[in-house]
Amino acid sequence: MIESKYAWQLVAPDDQLVKTLENDYQLPNLVAKYVVNQGLKTPEEIQAFLQPDMEALYDPAELAGMDAAIARLMQAIESGESIVVYGDYDVDGMTSTAIMFWALEIMGAQVDYFVPSRFEQGYGPNLAKYQELAANGMQLLVTVDNGVTGADEIAWLKSQGIDTIVTDHHELPEQLPDAVAVVHPRLPREAPSYPFGDLSGAGVAFKVASALLEAPADEVIDLAALGTVADIMPLVDENRIIVAQGLMAMREDARPGVAAILSIAGKNPEDLDAMSIGFTVGPRLNAIGRLDNPMLGVQLLLSDEPEEAETLAQQVETLNQERQMLVEDVTNAATQMLTDQATTHAVNVVVGEGWHEGVLGIVASRLVDATGKPSIVLSSDGTQAKGSARSIDGFDLFTPLDQHRELFTAFGGHAGAAGMTLPLDNVGQLQTVLDEAAVAQNLSEKGKSDLSILSQMDGSDFKRETFETLQMLGPFGEANPEPIFEINVSAVQQVKTMSDGKHIRFTAVTDQGNLPVIGFGFGAIADQLQGHFQTIKLVGAMSENVYRGMTTYQLMLKDLQAEGSSIMDWRTTKLTRQLLQQNADYIFFNKKNYDQLAGQVGANGRAIFIDDAYNYTQLGTLALVDLPNSLNELGELLNFVPAQAIAPIFYTKTPTYLQKVPDKADFGKVFRFVQSFQNVNLSGQFKQVANHLQMDQSMLNLIFKVFLEANFVTIENGFLNPVTNPSTVDLTETKAYKAFMKRRELEKQLIYSSTAELETLLSDLSNQEK
């Protein structure tokens, strides 16, 4: 069985409304279902959704603080004042900086920009840097994607006669800075003047640029789109227009910096969509802020020279590769720490010495995905611990930590994510606070996150017509997700891993044809998927794949569930070293086999003797190396220790099932022999005796055991002698004979059964009552 990660919810929109939209507006069924599910009903709402046009952008002047900001900027431009644009080190901050700098420069301003380092100035207003800029002649500061939390720092600037214009989109603090203008889409607090409150930092900068130019700033709408997508802002309302138009601009004529990034990544600008920005351009630019000087990112985005852009993009790619390796190393180390923990917690907290703090947020997200638990990842320098936290749906991570600020030297965030610095000695208390919060918020009872499914489909539905219909609904992203479909599958074929086992691809067999499937992050279940299941269901999004001029359509796997036993038939008559190198938990029922073979199990697996198996609460792929002593022993294991899959090997060096069962004639032949000879040296003459009797050595050994138990013979110091006048005994009732027949039947059921028969048997054993 493979359990789904999400709680699947098949959309059930108002059928009558869907039909009305189909008939009155000639909308395809899938489009009608989607827009109804998005809460759109009126013709105006639907048209605005399906045709996100520049004409529908709101007037920048409606933004609180805009008039004052523009007036002060024009004054500075006309008088030649020295202006500095102060940004942030993430993609939204870089694009905001580039937009504002471009707009001011094109207006003739004396302008420069600065983007703080994560490791030197940190996020947001920094008094020391402000003082340095002031000393260098700055006369007007313009913050982008930050600033609303800088009341103290901006007050110092004001005391020096330096004005500040704040443009930001982050949560509003109780005290706003005393700036010339605070341009923010959610001001005034009581009744925001702007119709849409979820602009990104780049979106706010775009609106300021448009107000300065007195027309939409078309030339930088691509940057606004990039910042909006990378900051995971909801792609609805005005954001939808910005991203749709920005993508169009990038497809038609990508700026040199973006084109260079795409070229290195092997992507064609003409194929750009919001998802590829989020997975291709965004992470590479973010890598700069995580590891190096984010000024490089702004320089790349503003570059007009293809050669310069290519050189800068190559530097960015090198940083991104370094970031990927760091993420991989820290994730592996953190995962191993969780595995080795003596106590399991509802919230993961891991601390590593010297971990690069620029990747801790990514690693925390990885742990959330892998474990389904809120996770905090901290890097220690021996005295302090600094890091990031990521939560799951339904668990407020921020509030319980905010109530214990005495633990931290620095702390901030929201319900779903946080950043913190604390003394290393306080990490234990941090874990305690989180454990208590998990109990208070009933974290153990939180259900799976919902996954909305638009419709059920079959393999035959994955075609150009369907794909082009779905494109009407893009761009996809936060709050406007890709349509997800459910596919019933009769079988899975050609399962292969990619990228060192991280991802998988396979063919799903459906009633109406085969369907290629790509599963990013599903590599861990590759072996399990090759088992046999009663039912398999997949959910995912439809994507287009163009390879060597051929276009095909595939499912991008989001989740799956499989009912019934997951049996991978690894049975063999020859136990090879390669078979012991899989990512599996190898269970040994025979101690001698365990002692001989445990050391040959690869680094990805674990060798476990049967007696120790019950110390585990969860196992992965259960590789049953040799035969159990009985079906009861096997059933007890399968019921007591949950496993993701069962991979029977059932190796036995000398199979009993292939031996001839001794009959009356065989017993008689051996009986006459032992009555005729005395002091038979079994250690030295056993083979000759077997040859003399023309009998298999295994059978002869069994008969000697039966005779010994029946008191027909004695064996002392390796010498066999007959017993005079032995009593009559039913030899088939001896323990030795019964053990032989029991073993024979066990081998018949476990080794010599068909895969289907074995699957049924193991499934029954796994589901028997404890």
Low-confidence stretches: none
Q: In order across it, which strands form the biggest sheet?
A: 13-14-18-19-17-16-15
Task: Count every helix, treating DSSP H or I runs of 4 or more residues as helices.
Answer: 27
CATH class of the largest domain, please?
Answer: Alpha Beta
The proportion of strand residues reads: 15-25%
How many domains, as an integer? 5
Indicate the structural class: alpha/beta
Give Rg in angstroms.
Answer: 35 Å
Our measurement of the CA-to-CA distance between the termini, rounded to an integer number of angstroms, reads 18 Å
Domain Single-stranded-DNA-specific exonuclease RecJ C-terminal: 567-760
Protein name: Single-stranded-DNA-specific exonuclease RecJ
Keywords: Exonuclease, Hydrolase, Nuclease
Domain DHHA1: 349-437
Structural commentary:
With 770 residues, this protein is of the alpha/beta class. It has five domains: 65-318, Alpha-Beta Complex (inorganic pyrophosphatase (n-terminal core)); 341-445, Diaminopimelate Epimerase, Chain A, domain 1 (Roll); 454-563, Beta Barrel (OB fold (Dihydrolipoamide Acetyltransferase, E2P)), CATH 2.40.50; 578-652 and 751-766, no CATH class; 664-746, Arc Repressor Mutant, subunit A, CATH 1.10.10. 41% of the residues lie in helices and 20% in strands. It contains 27 helices and 26 strands. Helix 5 (91-106) links the parallel strand 2 (82-86) and strand 3 (110-114). Helix 5 packs parallel to helix 8, helix 5 packs antiparallel against helix 9 and helix 9 (221-230) packs across helix 10. The longest helix is centred in the middle third of the chain and has 35 residues, at 306-340.
